[in-house]
Amino acid sequence: MEKKILIVDDALFMRKSIRKILSEGGYTNVEEARDGEEAIALYGEYSPDLVLLDITMPGKSGLEVLEELLEQDGNASVVMCSAMGQESVIQKAVVMGARDFIVKPFRKDEFLRIVDSCFPMEE
């Protein structure tokens, strides 16, 4: 079954870049959210297998969204995306329940390795 991925980032160029990388990696069932409120609403409608969540956004921060998603679905699979220099925030996100993190700027191969690791091989 095709995996569903939700990209959450306030920067349009970043959403487009991530969508392109995902498409090149074979992930085509992708939705996008511009902010935390939209992400929470879309999560309920779309039921993604993976959320790629920016940490720094206007309105709700990535950590607030992570907390709400995990309250909504304790099994939510979330990978945080952050700029360099946010190590303490990344550590907090992992303690809160984020599955992994990607530091921007990232390389395509590194990005896809992390996404692929969220989907164990199915028999």
From TrEMBL:
Please list the residues that carry the modification 4-aspartylphosphate.
D54
Q: Which InterPro entries match?
A: CheY-like_superfamily, Sig_transdc_resp-reg_receiver, ST_Response_Regulator
Keywords of this entry: Phosphoprotein
Q: Which SMART domains match?
A: REC
What Pfam families does the record point to?
Response_reg (PF00072)
Keyword hit for Phosphoprotein: yes
Official protein name in the record? Stage 0 sporulation protein A homolog
Please tell me the species this chain comes from.
Blautia producta
Gene giving rise to this polypeptide: cheY_3
